[in-house]
Structures are given as C-alpha cells and as structure tokens.
Amino acid sequence: MRVADTVTDRACVVLQDRPVLGLHRGLVDLLLAAERDGRAVRVVTPPTTRLTMPLHAVLAGGAGSWVVRYPEHGYFDADSGAPLHWSEGDFAAYAEPAGPAAATDAGSQLWMTVRLLHTSPPASFGLATEAVCTALTGGPPAGWGNAEPVAEPWRPIELSIAAASRGRRPTTLVVVGGGQRAAIGLLEFAIEPAGISETLTMAVGGFAAAPPDLDELATRLATDHPLGLALMVFRPGRADLTQVPFEPAEGRPLCVTVGPTAYTGDGRDALLALPGARTAGPAVHCDLSAGWAAYAQVRSVAMAGKEDGKPDAVG
C-alpha cells in the first residue's frame, strides 16, 4: 500500500486527515523503507488530529516528526511549536517556537521505561512487560503486534518467537494493556555487544494527581529480571493516551531503579551514596523528587561505573 504523498532525497511526507492516527501497517512499512533509504518521515495532519502513543513515540524517537498544518497560519512542529516552511526537500524551522504550550487539564499519565539486558537468550521475552502492566493496570497485556491495531493475543512465548525471527535486526512491537486502566507501549529488542537488550516504554492513563506507590514494582523488576533501568515519570495527558499537538511531554520524574546490568565494580556503592538512594533487591532505587537534574546525576554516576561493552542502560 502506497502511503507517502511526497518523496524527496531527504524526506517522505505523509498527509493524514483522521481524528486519531495510529501506527498502522502502511506507516510501519513506510518507516522501515525510509530508515533503509536514509529519509525522515514527516506526518502532516490538521490540528484536530491526535496521535496514538506508539506512533508519536516512534516519530519523536528519531524516525521523523509530526507536522501540523493550519490553513490560515501554515505549518508547525507539533512537539516544539516551531513554525516550519518547505526548504530543499524537507520541512525546516524558520523561527523559534512562540513558547511552551499550556499544561493540559485532561488528566495524568504514568510513563515507565524498563531496560533489560539478557546475557543469554531467555526462555521468554515480555515477562517484565507483563509484570509492569499487571502492577499498574490490574491485569496482563491484552495483545501485541507489529502495528496498530494489534492482532495477536498476549502470549509471551509467541512474542518471543516473533522477536527471534528477526535475527540481528532490531525489532519494535506494540503492546496494549488489558486491565482496568488504559495502557499502551512499545517493546524493543536489539543485539548488543553484551547480549540482547529488551526495552519497554509504556504509558498508563487514568491516574489522579498523586502517583501510585512504585517501590514494590521496582524491587520485583530488579529481583526477577536482568534489570538495567526502570524510570518512572508522571506527566499530564489524556486518559486515552493519545497525543494532541503542542502538549507538554517532559513530565516530572518520580524515581529510577538502576540494576546490576547497568554498573559494575564500585558503581552500586556510588549510587547508594546519592541523596534519596536505597537498595531494591540487587538494584539501587533513587528518588527523583529534585527533578531531571537528579536523574542526570544518577545517570552520570551509573555511567562512571559501567563496564566496557555494556549497553547504555541508563540513557
């Protein structure tokens, strides 16, 4: 299925006019082809369109960008708010953003990034994802797939077979929750020098202003899985987890748990010396109430004690 409306040496431009736009099969194929050819993907929508979390995360992660078109005002970067024009085969900013968007009053979301490093192939991938989803939504994931809507029911062994079938190529899968709260995420696998990395980025909606108690989940992840990192961020957003243009995305970091696959030697002692740090099974759990500066400090300490060849599990 042809998706791109304009293709240049630098970019593939996709014009979409849907109320909600997800990471559908056509876009997945286009993103893979664009990556192979060294092109960025620009998804252009009206300001009334919302993106699903998987599509927005893939674009924001470096595959391209979301462009909003106002008939009377032109084009804008949907994340930064920068005004754009067409220049030399791609969209380019020509002025600074007017300013940050106002915080949404739609609700709050909990975003969690979990990075594992398997030094040998596990019996099954996806078990940490199941633990996270169950703890935060009250039930395991409902399904997974290569695109949206997901087509496969949640069976970790089948997910593992699909990931292994890609060989050494990185694999990205969509996971949807099946519990009492809306949950959706991306599960990524890659071959690293020291093993197989498994990274979950999951958003869970419907929380009140106060975040849930996350200590027990952090300890379970560190004890039961080869944990590198578990980062938890509270951010404003819609309960259905779709993204609107110009919505603040940075959020407020709550805590980070750094596991033994992310450090070596004296790294654990150095992490425990940080303010608000404590043990969580074999890992170190760090409070981030001081904000992103506290996370940067944790990352710096963990990286200083990281063994050569280990992936950046605290990136």
Summarize the structure.
Pfam families: DUF6177. By secondary structure, this protein is an alpha+beta fold. The chain has helices at about 25-35, 55-65, 125-135, 155-165, 215-225, 265-270, 290-305; strands at about 5, 10-15, 20, 40-45, 50, 65-70, 75, 85, 90-95, 110-120, 140-145, 150-155, 170-175, 185-190, 195-205, 225-235, 250-260, 275-280, 285.
Keywords:
19 strands; Ribosomal Protein L15, Chain: K, domain 2; 7 helices; seven-stranded mixed β-sheet; ten-stranded antiparallel β-sheet; alpha+beta; globular; 23% helix; 315 residues
Radius of gyration: 20 Å
Report the strand count: 19
The description of the largest β-sheet is: 10 strands, antiparallel
* Discrete helix count: 7
Average pLDDT metric? 90
Shape: globular
- Order of the strands making up the biggest sheet: 12-11-13-14-15-10-16-17-19-18
- What low-confidence regions span 5 or more consecutive residues with pLDDT below 50? 307-312
Q: How many domain modules?
A: 2
Write the H/E string, N to C: EEEHEEHEEEEEHEEHEEEHEEHEEH
**What distance lies between the first and last C-alpha atoms, to the nearest angstrom?**
36 Å
Pfam families: DUF6177 (PF19674)
